[in-house]
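Readers of this paper often ask what the protein records in our data store actually look like. This encoding replaces a full spatial description with a residue-level series of whole-number codes. For reference, a complete record is included directly beneath this paragraph.
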Amino acid sequence: MEGMPRVPMLQPEPKIPANQYDEEFRLKIKEYILLHFQDDPSKYDNAISEIMTMKQNVSNSYADVETACLLKRYYAQLLMMKNRFPMEEGDPIKVLFCWYDRAMEIAHSATYDDVGFELACVMYNIGAVHACIAANESRENEDSIKNAFMHYQYAAWPLQHLRDKLNASKYASVDFDKELLTFFVNVLLAQAQECLLEKSLIDHRSNLVVAKLAIHLRDRYQECLRHIENSNLGDYVSSHKYKQWSRTCAIKSEMYGAIAMIHMGCQADDEKKMGARYGYYKIANEHLMAILKLAEKEDRDTMKASISFLADVVGNKLNNAKKENEFIYHDRVPGNEELCKDLEGLCKVRPLSFDPLDPSVGGEDLFSGLLPSGVVKAVSEYEEEKTRLKREVLQRINVKDDELDTFLVSLRIDEIDLNADSTPFVLPDMLLERNAALTTQPDAIPKLLDSLQKVSDLAREAGAKLSGLTGRLVDVDLPEITSDEGYKAIKKELERLTEHHQKARSNNVELHKAIAAHTTNLHLLSLSIDELTSKLAGPAINAGATPEGAALRRVLDKTREMQTQRAQLVQRLTDEMNNDNIAKKLLSERDSDHRETYIAELKKHEETIKYIDANLSAQEKILSALTDANADFSEFRKKIKASLNASVANESFFGHKHFFYHTLFLGFRRSEQIMALVTSYDVYSDVCSKVEDGRNFYMKLLDRLHKLTLAVEGIEAAFGAEREKREAEKRSLEEKMAALKRATETRDALADFSIGGVAQTSLPGVPTPVRGGRPRLGDYKEFYRNKMSGGAAPSAGYIPPPTSSIPYQPLVPGGVPRPDVQYASQLGQPQFHASHPPVVMGPPSPAPSSISELTGYQYHHAHEDPGRQAAAVQQIPYSAVPAMSHAAHAVAHNPALGLPAHLQGTVAPRPQSGPPPAALPQHYVPQQPLPQTNHTHIPLSTHHLRTGPALQYQQYAGAENVPTPTVATPIASVDTNLAGVQWNNMQQQIRAQTLPVSQVQHVPAHYPISNHPQGLVYTPVCPPC
């Protein structure tokens, strides 16, 4: 029967619009937008133009899919405009809609000023276009049959929706008559079933299935025939259409009845029921006779061809069945009622709807920015209803989830591997590669540790050299050398290298820590593949192979399946509620109470909620089964734990150290163990590369320090030459002081042997003898008591101090005064800079022999005395020196010394308690001061100098121009040749201006020193040649 020609189909004809939108429609819409929505109407010009264009395009209806989509889009936009703009009958915006009917012989137009009429006409055309598309299909192949099958179902729903929902019968249009709409709905569904029957014949489905589909078609067309005969369609439908529709329904009813009987006969033939087969073929022949009688006036060639093909098939099968049964089988032939009493049809078609509010159907809302207040409120209320429903569902789910999680944690199932897979454990490729790299180098780890030790040794060597060079450089405390650019560059370079060395030492510590942390894993990774596999795989215990383990694993799988399904259902419900927007649906309704709409829309989610409730209800049964299975598995669980603990305790590779394998087997999963081993090898590779970098760094650092050592030795050489000069000056000064001391002692001795009757002048500081001889012990006691009390009267013969003086003017290299002392005039008082406050000097010692022997220069280096902290570089400020000679001071304070002849006129007695004596005449003529030279005062020692202020000298009158002897040799630079030339020049000047021994000033042994360490920066310099 699959070769049977296709029978013709029936379809409604599309309606034709009689008018279009005009500019008045545009003005009315824009006016309403301005007045009621208070929005700018110009923003919706394009939307209005698109509506008018769609109306014009649907006027020219073609039987294609594009026209059907355009009609649906136009219908959706009109539906959403319906609730925004009052366009129904009696509303302010009146637009005339006019359409022609096609059911009558003469086209009849219907006109209404109601947008509902426009919606009904568009919906009718949607069904008519789908029906035309299906009727135009050839149905010669599977794709064509499938398209026709779908479009007939799409065509049936718009007509059914017109009849049941839109109440289109209220409009005076023949096409909207309920009887006509019902007829077309039944015919279109029957034709869809015909397509399914044709597809079943091509696919050679079972005879019983084909027979049931054909029986349903027979009954459906009989119903259509009765409907058209019992209705009044003949009164307003054209007679030609009415007769054609009636004849087609009658012929198809008989035709599909004959096809059903043919396939029932074939089914009886398969069951070897030859009498029944002959009976079915006889019934088919009866249907054929009825068809031939109805088709006498049929003028459609396709229908005639189908009838002719059917007649040939029925005739052949009937003759063969009759002959075989009469001559061979002689089976009883049942009656028609007996054969057809249990036959029922099978309907597999239904109307297929479309959602006009779906964006894929109707597109985006052209007037989405215009929402009536009622719609906004209704949408908000619906969102609250959705939220409440979702909250209730999630609350029930959370309670069940907490219960399930608590129960699973209490079972401690994760401790046991229940997988029944007996395949051997295979190491991953990344672990095998790292294992091969270590096993091929058995001494890789010892080599790495040895390299680390060598780097540490280099670090210690570099640190010692840096410390030694820094200390040796700090020992050089001459301002002339420390202010040199070369000295600063070397010091800066040493500081920079020290900083890099400290960072490198920190890196060395981190490398040691890293390799120590991963040593255990590296030893494990260096094992052979078999040993490594056994360590990672653990004892061969297959818990899932036992009946108890299999039962427990099966229940656990059900539990996980329940959890997964629950999560999927929750996600499904969330997505459905998020996509549930009823704003467009509310726009298509004009009811003020939307509660029924809410209830209807929420019912869409009832199916998913029902599945969630079923999932929650199953949890109680699953947990009960899980409890029983875990109880049955308890004995085997104890055996597994005991085996694992025994394997860990018997581990011999690392012994009992850190219980590594206890953590490995019981604390981590196998994947985590593998990643730990891989990470350890990566750390090992990184440490190897960094160790090599560290060795290269220290080799370069030591080479740099070697060059800096040469530079520091050059500085020390220059500083040593200057030290020798300072020591020579010290020895010369000590010799002079020793000569002065011997002269003083000689004078004292001569005084002891002087003639007793000669009166001697008392000197300050010595008690006056009581009986014309030397002072007694009591005299000295009285003198010291007066001195300690501070109120003793001055002794007789006291020489008063001078009333004016010239302060000492220290010079710097180049013959200019120190920068921290500013002079008002050549003989005026010095003005000290703010960075060096003025220093008050203490009283001179009683005699030149009081110069301390510790003032010698102490020279050593930090590397020569490891226990000594390197001294900070100090800038030693100068102190104001009294402007009179030290010899004059000694004579003034020591009665054992006599005044020289040139100072006799300037000595004044010490003031007594009575009126002061008259000033003595000034006979002393001071010498001219030495010319200013490049002199710098440098103390002889830096170990015993006071940093606090000293007492002020008493100044003597007439000593303004007493020159100051040179006590230090200036150094302009570290050039020893130039320093030698300067030293010779200064010696010549000193010889020309040397004072007598009696006029040599006393140099105080303790100069105050200001401790101001000068921080010096450095840059790398080349070592001196």
In short: Residues 413-425+541-644 form one domain.
